[in-house]
Design goal:
The protein is mainly α. The chain has two domains: 240 residues, no CATH class; 269 residues, no CATH class. The chain contains 26 helices and three strands. It has a three-stranded mixed sheet, with helices on one face. Helix 2 packs parallel to helix 5 and helix 4 packs antiparallel against helix 5. It is globular, with a radius of gyration of 24 Å.
Length: 586
C-alpha cells in the first residue's frame, strides 16, 4: 500500500499522461545520444565505446553548433503540454528545459571565450584523464593512447580562443594569477614517467592484458608524453607567460567587462537556480553572517575563551591542531571518513554501492587551489569516487576542519549524493548529466549540518570548524556579489573573510581568487542549503511524529540533482504521500 500511495502522490502511475510522457522520453533519448557524441570521454565512462578514438571538440564553431541543436530540442520540448505530464514527467521537463535554455543563453555571452579559472583549465582537465578512465583491457589502453595523441587539437584551439579573449579584453584579473604558471609547468615536469599521464602504467598490470602488450603500451605512452604532450605544455606555458599574463585585467569584477553585468546576472540565476538578484543574495549572506557569528560566540565561550576572535586565533596558531606530515593529515582524513561510513545508516535508508577513496591533490595545483574536492566515479567503468585532499602548506590545513570537510566531500555529502544518482533507475541523461550546482553544493553544505546529528563534532574546536565552514559559505554570498556586482576589491573580500571565518590565510587567498576568476559558482552552496533546510522544516511541521529523517533524506537525493524549484515540488509531493499513507494506516 505504501508504494502505491507514494506512486499516486508523485504522479508516477497515470496512464492518461502516457502520450506526453512518451514524447518527452523520446526527446530525452535524442538529447542523450547527442550528449554522448559531443562528450566522448563521458561516453566511455558510462560504457558507450563508440567514440573511444575522439576527444571533446572545444572550438567556438562546435559551441555554436551545440547551441543551435539545443534550441531545436528546446522548441520540441516546449511543444509538449507540460500540464499533462506525470509527476516524473514534470521533473524531467523542468530539468531538461533548464539545461537546454542555460546552454543556449550561456553561449550568447562574449565571456564564453574565458576558458580557465584559478580552479580549472583545459590543461588540468586533460591531465585528469588517468583518474577518469578505466584501464582493464587492451581497448582501454588503445583508447587512452589515441586520446593522448589528440591533445594538440585541444591545446591549439584553446590557445586560439584565449588569444581572442586577450584581444577583446576578456582576461582574468592580474591579482589572481600569482603562481598560475605552475599549474601548467608542473603537469609533466622534468620526468615524463613521474607525470599523471604515465600513472596507468605504474599500477599493477590488468589480468586481461599480456606482459608484452602492457610493456608496449607503456613505451608508447612515454613516447607520446615526451614528443607530443611535453612540447604542447611548453607551448602553453610560453603563450601564457608572454601573451596572456601581460594582458591580465586590472579590474577585479566581471561587471567591469563589456556585457559583464548581464553575464553575471545570468551566472547568478544559473548557479542558484533561483531568480534572486545579486543584491538580494548579498543581503541574505549578510543576514546569515550575523546569525552564524552569534553561534560562534557561544562555542568560543564553551571552549573557555572570552571572545570569538581569541578562540579563532588559538585555533589558527596552536601547533596541536596541525599535522606534521602529509601522511598524518591523510591518516586523520581516512579515520574520519570511515567513522562517517559507519554512521550513514542512521541518516539514510538507501545507500550507494559505489565506494570512494582518498588521494592527495596534484602537487602542481595544490598551493593555489582549495582545501579539498570530490571527483565522481563511474559504476559502468568500475571507477570509484575520489575525495581529493590538499596536503600542501600543512600549517594552513587544521585538523579541526576535517569532520566538516569529510562530511561535505565524502559522505553524507558529494559521494553519497552523486554515486547514488549514478545508480538510480532514471533516464541516463539525468543520471549522468544533470548536476545543478545549487543542489549538489547545497547538499554538500547541508551534509555538514547532518554531521551534528551524527555526533562527529566531538570538541569545541571541531564545532568551530563546522561553523567556520558554514560562515565561509555565507561569506561567499557577500563576497562574490560584492566583487562582481557591487564594486568590491580583492582586499575588501579578503578582509571580510578574515574577519568572519576561522579559515587560514592561504585558504582565504585561494578562495577569493576562485570567486574572482569563477563568477557566481560559489553562490550555490548556501542558497541550496538554505532551501533544503527550509523544506525539511516544512516536512517536520507537516508530518509531526510521522517525520522520518532517513526517508526525508532519501526523498531529497533520491531523484538525483534537480533545480531548487523542482526540488520543492518533489518534496511537497513526498509530504502529501506521507500524509496519505499515515491517513490510510490510521
Amino acid at each position: 500500500m505504501r508504494a502505491l500511495i507514494l506512486a499516486l502522490a508523485l504522479g508516477t502511475a497515470a496512464p492518461v499522461w502516457a502520450a506526453p510522457d512518451d514524447d518527452l522520453g523520446t526527446l530525452m533519448d535524442e538529447v542523450w545520444a547527442s550528449a554522448l557524441r559531443e562528450n566522448p570521454v563521458m561516453a566511455t565512462r558510462v560504457g558507450v565505446r563508440d567514440y573511444d578514438d575522439r576527444v571533446f571538440d572545444n572550438s567556438l564553431a562546435a559551441e555554436d553548433r551545440r547551441a543551435a541543436e539545443a534550441q531545436a530540442y528546446l522548441d520540441q520540448l516546449r511543444a509538449i503540454p507540460q500540464d499533462q505530464l506525470s509527476g516524473d514527467g514534470r521533473t524531467n521537463y523542468g530539468i531538461l528545459e533548464r539545461m537546454l535554455s542555460e546552454s543556449i543563453e550561456g553561449n550568447g555571452y562574449a565571456q564564453r571565450v574565458m576558458l580557465f579559472t584559478t580552479f580549472s583549465g583545459w590543461h588540468q582537465g586533460f591531465a585528469s584523464l588517468p583518474s577518469a578512465l578505466s584501464f582493464q583491457t587492451s581497448a582501454d589502453f588503445e583508447s587512452y593512447l589515441t586520446r593522448l595523441s589528440l591533445y594538440p587539437t585541444i591545446n591549439d584551439e584553446a590557445i586560439a580562443i584565449s588569444t581572442q579573449a586577450v584581444e577583446q579584453g576578456y582576461t582574468l584579473p592580474c591579482v589572481v594569477l600569482d603562481g598560475y604558471e605552475n599549474s601548467i609547468s608542473g603537469v609533466i615536469g622534468d620526468d615524463p614517467l613521474a607525470s599523471r599521464f604515465y600513472e596507468p602504467f605504474t599500477r599493477p598490470r590488468p589480468t586481461g592484458v599480456s606482459e608484452e602488450a602492457f610493456a608496449d603500451y607503456a613505451a608508447r605512452a612515454q613516447e607520446i608524453i615526451t614528443t607530443i604532450l611535453a612540447p604542447e605544455y611548453a607551448e602553453h606555458l610560453d603563450w601564457y607567460l608572454n601573451v596572456y599574463q601581460p594582458a591580465c585585467s586590472e579590474e577585479v569584477g566581471i561587471s567591469a567587462q563589456e556585457g559583464g553585468a548581464e553575464y553575471y546576472a545570468f551566472r547568478v540565476r544559473q548557479m542558484t537556480t533561483t531568480d534572486f538578484s545579486a543584491q538580494e543574495i548579498h543581503d541574505i549572506g549578510q543576514s546569515e553572517v550575523t546569525r552564524i557569528r552569534a553561534e560562534m560566540e557561544e562555542v568560543s565561550a564553551e571552549a573557555g575563551f572570552e571572545t570569538r576572535e581569541a578562540f579563532i586565533e588559538h585555533l589558527r596558531t596552536d601547533p596541536q591542531y596541525y599535522a606534521a606530515t602529509p601522511e598524518e593529515l591523510m591518516g586523520a582524513v581516512a579515520l574520519q571518513a570511515k567513522e562517517l561510513d559507519g554512521l550513514m545508516p542512521t541518516m539514510f535508508a538507501t545507500l550507494p554501492r559505489l565506494p570512494y577513496g582518498i588521494r592527495a591533490i596534484p602537487d602542481e595545483i595544490a598551493e593555489g587551489t582549495t582545501t579539498a574536492y570530490y571527483s565522481g566515479g563511474s559504476p559502468e567503468s568500475g571507477i570509484a569516487g575520489t575525495y581529493y585532499v590538499n596536503t600542501s602548506l600543512l600549517d594552513q590545513r587544521p585538523l579541526w576542519e576535517i569532520p566538516a570537510l569529510s562530511a561535505h566531500e565524502g559522505v553524507p555529502g558529494h559521494h553519497n549524493q552523486i554515486a547514488l544518482q549514478q545508480e538510480l533507475e532514471m533516464h541516463p541523461l539525468r543520471r549522468n548529466l544533470a548536476f545543478f550546482g545549487a543542489f549538489v553544493e547545497g547538499w554538500g553544505l547541508y551534509s555538514e549540518r547532518i554531521g551534528i546529528e551524527m555526533g562527529i563534532y566531538d570538541t569545541p574546536a571541531e564545532n568551530m570548524g563546522r561553523l567556520s565552514y558554514e560562515m565561509w559559505r555565507a561569506c561567499r554570498l557577500v563576497v562574490d556579489t560584492g566583487i562582481h556586482a557591487l564594486g568590491w576589491s580583492k582586499e575588501q573580500a579578503i578582509a571580510f573573510m578574515s574577519e568572519n571565518t576561522a579559515l587560514t590565510d592561504a585558504n582565504i587567498e585561494a578562495e577569493v581568487n576562485r570567486y574572482i576568476s569563477w563568477p557566481g559558482q560559489a553562490l550555490g552552496y548556501k542558497m541550496g542549503e538554505l532551501r533544503i533546510r527550509a523544506l525539511r522544516a516544512r516536512a517536520e511541521e507537516a508530518l509531526g511524529e510521522n517525520f522520518d529523517v532517513r526517508h526525508f533524506h532519501d526523498a531529497v537525493i533520491g531523484q538525483g540533482s534537480v533545480p531548487l524549484d523542482v526540488l520543492e515540488g518533489q518534496i511537497d509531493r513526498w509530504i502529501a504521500a506521507q500524509l496519505a499513507e499515515a491517513a490510510e494506516e490510521g
